[in-house]
Amino acid sequence: MFLPKPSLTKSGRYYAPVEIPATRTKARLQAAQRVSTSPPRAVPGVASATTTQRITLVIPALNEAANLPHVFARIPSCVDEIVLVDGRSIDGTVDVARALRADVRIVVQSGRGKGNALACGFAAATGDIIVMLDADGSTDPAEIPHFVAALHEGFAFAKGSRFIGHGSSTDLTRVRRTGNRVLALGVNMLFKTKYTDLCYGYNAFWRDCLPHMNVDCDGFEVETLINVRIARAGLTVTEIPSTEHQRIHGESKLNTMRDGSRILRTILTERMRRRTTPAHPDEWRPVFRELPPTVTG
Ligand SMILES: Nc1nc2c(ncn2[C@@H]2O[C@H](COP(=O)(O)OP(=O)(O)O)[C@@H](O)[C@H]2O)c(=O)[nH]1
Ligand SMILES: [Mg+2]
Questions:
Q1: Ligand nearest to the CA of residue 113, numbered in listed order
Q2: Chunked in runs of 10, what are the mean pLDDT values of the chain (297 residues)?
Q3: What is the residue range of 87's domain?
Q4: Residue 39 covered by a domain
Q5: Rounded to the nearest whole angstrom, what is the distance from the C-alpha of residue 122 to the centroid of ligand 1?
Q6: Ligand 1 lining (C-beta closer than 6 Å)
Q7: Angle between the 222-232 and 174-191 helix axes, to the nearest 10 degrees?
Q8: What is the pTM of this model?
Q9: Is residue 160 part of a domain?
Q10: What is the CATH classification number for the domain harbouring 145?
Q11: By alpha-carbon position, which residue is closest to atom 28 of ligand 1?
Q12: CB–CB of 35/13 below 8 Å?
């Protein structure tokens, strides 16, 4: 395995080192290339990387029974723990998840919305590395190794982006794409970030980031809240090119106007806030309920 030294480009932007296994093709190399605004460095409180760290995958799911077979089939073997956070689905989501993976942990969220679901999933996760992605087939679990590799290179947070490198989306409508771009511009101006994507649900991070993220929102503003708080905490962030597909079955629960204005409100509120990290290390942790595992044999 060859690990090139970090280097600065002519434009002054930092290209993170990329692990290059001998078998990697040109396309995969481009896929692994990441641009960051700062070099990876040791972050106080963020675990140092070894290859033995455990990985938890957190999947929020609300009536996604028909999509789970596709999603679970693509989860790579490097994932040690799967936490599915159910939003009290009525389509058999929990039964399907259990039929697919006997070892899946089922968490019932304490409140409502994707933000609350992720907060509960993060609270339940036991891994050193936490990966979050969607249950509708739009985010591909096969990309997880790219995210994890970035964390092992020294970044605190690996943030999926549909608009960098070979990243793309066939799921976004034109209105949502424009809204995402405008909101990302606003965040970049207000928080001095260089994000190419703001509202994407595919990320990975060391568990030490959790108190900094302090996820305390309910809805689809959750990704924005996380992205803003990790930037304000000074954590090292790198963007990973990611391909978003159309959800396979069912419809998006996101309402462009309602959730767009929630995201805007979140950005403005975060800009006004002073304290971002909870005083107590467990203050961010919501109460959640976990269903007992199914008895087998
Ligand atoms: N547990 C839970 N999951 C949710 C909730 N709302 C959305 N999700 C999940 O969050 C992911 C993204 O939701 P989706 O409707 O596809 O939104 P979009 O991708 O932004 O269009 C999917 O896996 C949903 O099942 C919720 O209230 N509770
Ligand atoms: Mg979706």
A1: 1
A2: 33 33 33 38 45 91 98 98 98 98 97 97 98 98 98 98 97 96 98 97 97 95 97 96 98 95 97 80 88 77
A3: 52-286
A4: no
A5: 16
A6: 60-62, 64, 85-87, 109, 112-114, 117, 134-136, 138, 201, 220, 247, 252-254
A7: 20
A8: 0.85
A9: yes
A10: 3.90.550.10
A11: 87
A12: yes
Give the atom of ligand 1 at the shortest distance from the alpha carbon of 109.
1
In a domain, 117, yes or no: yes
Q: Is residue 118 part of a domain?
A: yes
CB 174: neighbour CB atoms within 10 A? 7
Using an 8 Å Cβ cutoff, are 60 and 118 in contact?
Answer: yes
- In this structure, which ligand is nearest to the CA of 247? 2
Give the number of other Cβ atoms within 10 Å of residue 172's Cβ.
19
- Nearest partner of 205 among 170, 161, 154, 247, judged by Cα: 154
Q: How many domains does the chain have?
A: 1
Ligand 1 atom showing the smallest separation from residue 220 Cα: 20
Question: Does an H or E element contain 264, and which?
Answer: helix 256-272
Residue nearest to atom 16 of ligand 1 (CA): 252
